[in-house]
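Cross-check.
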Amino acid sequence: MRFTSAILLATAVLPGISALPHVERSKKGKCPPFSGNFTIHQYQLYAENADFDFDRCLLYLGSLWNASIAVYDPYKAKVVETIEFPGIAHNPTYHLGGVGIDKNSGLLSVVVDVGAAFDTSGKDISGTNYFIQYDPDTKKILYQLNLTATTNGLYGGPQDVEQDPEGNIYSVFTFPSAIVKVSKNGKKVEEWYKPTPPIITTNAGLGGLAANGWVLLGDNSFTGELWRFDMRAEKGVPSVIPITPAYNLSFSDALYLPPKYHGTVLLVAEDAKGISVFRSKNGKWESAEYLGLVPWTGDPAFFVTAPVQVGDALYMVLEPFGDAKLPGQNQGGRTDFTFPDITSQVEKLLGSYH
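Predicted model, tokenized:
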């Protein structure tokens, strides 16, 4: 969730993050183990969301203000490709925050949003938002859809994406909470979960999506709740997930079900706090245990915008929203972006609750 106009300028210090990642090579066909803090050296990367491809062993990062995608090979420690879409990349109108690899098809789902919705905290939701389905192997756009044509511009701020087992895609909107469903072939786009009238665009709601089979999870900042949907339903009907002990989310962003836990552990990024850890022992998410917080204790102008698993390790995605903007640009001039390994902290929380 990006409220950039309200954030103070920051320094570039990341205390306590200096270790190099530990990498092991594997002769098997799957991604080798990977762990430890790592830093991506890429001018103006400013990634807000990320997803790891467990077949190609590559990390896809949405470069927010460049409105492009950086493809990072953690085993080579370098950006190996930049994906740019015509008319979108380097266009100051757009942000690119939502990226998601379909685990079954290997296709890359991308959400392109008009930045004004986040810059104004939902006051200005004008402009055209897009969904793009991209094939990383052929390096071709399979289809590009105008999401605003479906929403009629009544709500805005799309920023995350998920897929169901049949390959249908779900894009979440934040101002206010809504979900648009795109069919696998891109020929049908529908309002799957619509905001409840009256539509108040400054009510910042759902910030992210995570899927386990046909179960779709969302985090609602406006209510502080975790929501559950059944993607087999014709329309999205949310149910509030009871949490024990009781816990309310605050300024939550992307959420993530790390594959290593097979859908039983949920990580939720809370922008100003860190990563909240929840568990559903059967993976159905009809209820959840709140296990605790992995706090971000560094520079408070770095927001924790997403969790991600890379190899078999867990990481915070940090967005330095407080960087001073360069003259004539909407972003700063940073080159080094660090990703802290939080695996041991998550494991400690899991071990405390058997």
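The longest helix spans residues 343-352. Confidence is low (pLDDT under 50) at residues 3-20, 22-29. Passed to J.P. for a second look.
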